[in-house]
Amino acid sequence: MIISIASGKGGTGKTTISTNLAFSLAQKGHKIQLLDCDVEEPNAHIFIKPKVELKETTSFVVPQIDEEKCTYCGECVRVCAYNALFVAKDKVMFFPQLCHSCGGCAYFCPEKAIFETNREIGEIEAGSGYSIEFAYGKLNIGEVMSPPLIKRLKKRIDEDKVVIIDAPPGTSCPVIEVVKGSDFCLLVTEPTPFGLNDLKLAVEMLKVLKIPFAVLINRWNEEYFEIDSYCDKENISIVMRIPLERKIAELYSEGVLFSKELLEWQDAFCKLFDSIEGLWK
Amino acid sequence: MIQEITVLSGKGGTGKTSLVGSFAVLAKDKIMVDCDVDAADLHLILNPEIEEANDFFGLNEYFINRDVCIECGKCEELCCFEAIKDFEIDVISCEGCGICYLACPASAIETRKKKCGEWYISETKYGPLVHAKLGIAQENSGKLVMEVRKAAKEMAQKENISLVITDGPPGIGCPVIASLSGTSLVLVVTEPTVSGIHDMERVLDLCSHFNVKVLVCINKFDLNLEKTGEIEKICRKRNVKIAGKITYDYIFTEALIKSLPVVEFSDGETSRRIKSLWENLYNELNR
Amino acid sequence: MKIAISSMGNDLSSQVDPRFGRCQEFIIFDSETLEFEAIPNEAINAAGGAGIKAAQLVVDKGSKVVITGNIGPNAFNVLAGAGINVFAGATGTIQNAIDAYKAGKLQEVNQATNGPGAISTVPTYR
Question: Is A88 in contact with C47 (Cβ distance < 8 A)?
C-alpha cells in the first residue's frame, strides 16, 4: 500500500507525521519504506538518521547540437514548446533551465544533428534507520526541475512494503508528481484560516487525481472549528488530531521523533494506519 | 529606482505570510505581492477587493480524436512523460511538449489553449496587492510568479511607487527562483529547529548562487535557545545579518483567526519585535 | 537596416510597449526605405521563454537593432549572441523612439535591464 502525506500549506507537519507513522509501524513489526519526496527541502533524514548505503546522482536528458551537421534551419526552435532553443545565422543557443527533456528537437532535426546528453539535477541517498527502508532526493541548488528527480526516487517504491511518501507543500507540479499513483493520501492541516484555505486546494487537487484521502489536524486546539465544519460538510474523515503541545514542538526542534519519547503516540499512529486501511478498503 | 524585498524560508510554515502581513501595515507607499501562487494565503490577512482579474495561460492541451486515430502507437512511443496509454492522453501527466501532435501521421491529435490560472490586481486597506491563483492540478507556477511580479513592477513604475514587498513560496525550486531573481533584498524567515536550520542553509545557498543580498529573521526564537544560537553562529560565519528575533507566541494564530496582521491585533512584545525587524529591513534596503 | 521596436499597436503612432518578450506587436522599420511592417508577437502568451521566442521572431525578420523599454536576461543573451544592438528605455510613440534612436539619444545596453520576472539562465553556446 502506498500512502502519501501532503498538505497544501507548508509547515503543517507532513514530515512529523510521515516519520512518526513510519517509526511507530516499524516498531510494531510492519515492513516499512519511507520516501522523502520533498526534494527541494528534504527533512525526514534528520529524524530517521539513516545509515546511508547508496548515493546516486540523478540526471536529466538534454540536447546537444553537433555543429558539424547543423544547418541552422531552425526546425528545433519551431518544435520546442518551451522556447528553450534559439537559432541565429551561424549559432544555436540552448537554455537548459527551460528544457523539459521531451526529445522533440532531436526527433525532428532533419540533419540528425542533435544528440542527447545528461545534465545532473540532484542526488538520491538510500539506506535504513529504525528498521525503516529509507530514501530521499536532494535537488541541486539553483535547479528548477524537480519532477524528474521525484520520478527517479519513486522508481524505488517496493510494493511489498507499506510505502509512506512525504510530499512537498503546495498543489502544483512537484506535488502532483509525488502523489500520483498513491493508494491513499493523508492531508495534514492546522486549525488556522491558512490551514483551511490550503486544505481546500489540496482536496480539490486529490479529487482531480481521484485519490482517496482523509485529514489529520496537527496542533489541534479548541479555538478554531472551521476545519471540522468544512470536513463535515464535504464528508471528509478526520482520522487524527495532535494537540498543540510545546513538548512536541521542542522534540521536533531537536530533530527527535516525538513518538520515540512519548510512547503512547506509537499506538495512536498504529491506529491511524488502521483507519487509513479501513477507509482505503 | 524600484526596490523589492522578497520574503522566503525554504521550510514552509515558519511565519513568512504573517510577517509580510505586518509589513503591509508598517511600510508606507508600497505594493504587496503574493508569489506563493499554488497555496496563496496573504489575501486572508489583507482582505483585498479585486479590481482587475487576468487569465493566465499555460502550455497547450492535447487530445486524440478517436474518429481519426489509426492506432499506430507512434504518439505513445514518442511521449517522454508516459502520458499516452491506449490512445488516450492523460492531461495530468502531459507536459505539453506537443511532439505527439507534430508526429501523428494521421493528424488525429488536436490542441487548444489552456487556462492555467488567474492573477489579480486588488486594493486593500494597506495599499495595492498583486496576487494569483493557480488552477487546480496545473503546472507552470514559476511562470505565473513572473507574471505577478512583472505586473507589480509595472504598476510601481506607473504610479511612482518605490517599494515592492513580496511574499515568496516555500522550497528552493522553480517558483522560488522566479521570486528571487533580480530582487533587491531577501529576508529568510527561519525557526530554531533542526529542519528550519537545514532548510535555511539551502535557501542561503540559493541566494548566494543568484548573488542576492540576504538577511535572516529567527521566528519562534525562544522555542529552542540552543538552536537559535546555532543559527546565529551559522549566520556570522556566512556574514549574514540577523534582522530580528520574534517570540514563539500564540498571538500569531489568534491574529490569523481574526484575519488581522499581528501588529494590528496586538501591541505587545511580539509586535514590538516585528516593528524593529521591519525598521532593520528598511534601513538595510536604504543603505 | 531593419529596426525592431516593441509596440502596443500596429503603426508608427502606437506607444512603445515597455515589455520586450510580451509586447503586443513588433514594428519592423526599415531605415533605408522608411517602410515598416507590423507583426503580432506570437510569444505574448508563451508559457515560458517568451523573451527567447520574441527574439527569434525579430532575428528571423532580419532586424539588426532592437528598441524597447526593458529587456530580460534571456532575450538579451540571445540578441547579443546574434549580434543585435539593443536599445532600452524607449518611451512615447514608435515614431518618437525611432527619432530618438537616430538622434543618438537612446541608451545601448550591454546587459538585461529587468531581472524581476525572469529566470536568468546561462545559455550554452554550441
Answer: no
